[in-house]
Design brief:
Blueprint: E1 3-9, H1 15-24, E2 29-33, H2 47-52, H3 54-72, H4 88-113, E3 115-119, E4 121-128, E5 131-138, E6 141-152, E7 156-158, E8 171-172, H5 174-177, E9 186-190, H6 194-205, E10 209-213, H7 225-238, E11 242-244, E12 248-254, E13 259-265, E14 268-274, E15 276-279, E16 283-285, H8 292-295, E17 318-320, H9 331-345, E18 359-361, E19 366-371, H10 374-379, E20 384-390, H11 395-400, E21 406-412, E22 418-425, H12 428-440, H13 445-450, H14 459-469
Parallel strand pairs: 1-2, 1-6, 2-3, 6-17, 8-15, 9-10, 9-15, 10-11
Antiparallel strand pairs: 4-5, 5-6, 7-16, 12-13, 13-14, 18-19, 19-22, 20-21, 21-22
Helix pairs in contact: 1-4, 1-9, 3-4, 3-6
Length: about 475
């Protein structure tokens, strides 16, 4: 029976990073994962993020953006193209190639760092003295390894919708939405969160008539509402997405070649028939098969594994990270938790502040934020001041042909310490990193205002918003 210092269950962005960091710290480490490639004939590391989530969705977003630009934006640059054709299968093939390259990269990193990769589903069997016994089930071929420490990083799965089953033919989850090889004429999306908006945007750009149905009365409720309202206007009035809010679903029928959805909105009952329907109503922690109940691993009322501030579970030397525990379901949050746990096992004292974790929605324009929203500050009774600046007069944004959007800086009225930074605009997924660093180092709006930002760059809009906090904007 093999023995390890650390065994990680799950090779997603939390698990594989935890395993690599543990190995770097000198621990004999193994990582258990049951992921397979799209063809189902070989192991594939990387979890949901690399295989059917973050990475493939960004590949499709970029491809669809190029197609849309060729149709609608090249002409103003003096570029004339002939008849533009779209090949959905080729787009999916490119996406698959990126996924294969990156999952293979994790395999290489495991070999480089001497992490032993074990294929199968991992579950806790119990204690053998000071060691945990972990079963590895490779399609019925079972083996057991022992470990001083176990890190659970089993991620999350799509939340099911009771009204209809996912078949990934007509009714799709995130995986099915990433593998359509033809453009549906009419596409329905249940849920206007990150997945719904990103997938709706992809297929809208390449010709689908997209309708998004959202149960909540507020669009992007977790986002600063000034930014959310601007996004809603752009997505609906300019890009042609139909977004219905406050929807109550009554019935969904999966027919042979279509899906019909009956729902109520604004006191009116409607029925829509779609060629395909994407269900994206959030995700739930994946604890199935861990044998949690048998070993006494505690979960909360929502199914998340209970952990303390340092990711310790109620069981000795068993840790849990990522989507399977409290906090935002974000790949970068999981990765940083994985690093922190490995370092805690080594006796170090790492720190991770959930208040400073960035959020990004990769639509066009992108949406990104970190810290408190204006609505949260009002609810908490915090006195604040704010500054905003737009991309409309930014030279770099105009050159890119992407001059829509706003940057908003919120700072404490008494100390000027930055409390939140919110953005909608071109490539703000990259700009938000400056906001994260500002919060992490307790910067003031004046600090950003006094830093020289290169010209012409998109970052100048953040600089201008910081200046505007104290009413000394230079370009607006």
């Amino acid at each position: 029976m093999s023995q390890f210092d650390v065994v990680v269950i799950g090779a997603g962005p939390g698990g594989y990073i935890a395993a690599i960091r543990a190995a770097q710290l000198g621990f004999k480490t193994a990582c258990i994962d049951a992921g397979v490639n799209k063809a189902g004939d070989a192991p594939a590391l990387g979890g949901t993020c690399l295989n059917v989530g973050c990475i493939p969705s960004k590949a499709l977003l970029q491809s669809s953006e190029h197609f849309h630009a060729a149709q609608h934006e090249f002409a103003e640059h003096g570029i004339t193209v002939g008849s533009v054709k779209f090949n959905a299968a080729k787009m999916i093939e490119r996406k698959d190639g990126i996924v294969t390259k990156l999952t293979g990269g994790i395999k290489f990193l495991f070999q480089k760092n001497k992490v032993e990769s074990l294929f199968g589903k991992g579950s806790l069997k119990g204690r053998n003295g000071d060691l945990w016994q972990v079963e590895v089930d490779d399609k019925g071929n079972k083996s057991v390894v022992e470990a001083k420490h176990v890190i659970i990083a089993t991620g999350s799965v799509p939340r099911p919708l009771p009204l209809v089953d996912i078949d990934n033919v007509n009714v799709l989850d995130n995986e099915g939405a990433l593998n359509l090889t033809a453009v549906p004429k009419k596409l329905g999306v249940i849920g206007s969160g990150v997945i719904g908006l990103e997938m709706g945007s992809v297929w809208n750009r390449v010709g689908s008539e997209v309708t998004i149905l959202e149960a909540l009365p507020t669009f992007l409720g977790a986002t600063d509402q000034q930014i959310a309202k601007e996004a809603f206007k752009i997505f609906t009035k300019e890009q042609g997405l139909t977004i219905e809010l406050g929807v109550k679903l009554n019935e969904i029928k999966n027919n042979k070649k279509s899906v019909s959805v009956s729902y109520e909105v604004g006191g009116e009952t409607k029925t829509e028939t779609f060629d395909k329907l994407i269900v994206s109503i959030g995700r739930i922690p994946n604890t199935e098969g861990l044998n949690a109940e048998a070993v006494g691993l505690e979960k909360d009322e929502r199914g998340f594994i209970k952990v303390d501030d340092e990711c310790r579970t109620n069981l000795p030397n068993v840790w849990a990270i990522g989507d399977v525990v409290r906090g935002p379901m974000l790949a970068h949050k999981a990765s940083d938790e994985g690093v922190a746990v490995a370092e805690r096992i080594a006796g170090q004292k790492p720190h991770l502040d959930f208040n400073n974790i960035p959020f990004v929605i990769y639509t066009d324009p992108e949406i990104a934020w970190v810290g408190k929203t204006e609505e949260q500050l009002k609810a908490e009774g915090v006195e604040y001041k704010k500054g905003t600046s737009g991309f409309a007069a930014n030279g770099r944004a105009l050159g890119l042909g992407k001059a829509k959007g706003t940057v908003k800086v919120l700072a404490c009225a008494k100390t000027d310490r930055i409390l939140g930074i919110h953005m909608i605009g071109p490539i703000v997924s990259e700009l938000v990193a400056e906001g994260v660093m500002s919060l992490e180092f307790s910067a003031s709006s004046e600090d950003i205002a006094r830093i020289v930002h290169a010209h012409p760059t998109l970052s100048e809009v953040l600089h201008e918003a910081a200046l505007a906090v104290d009413k000394r904007a230079l370009h607006g």
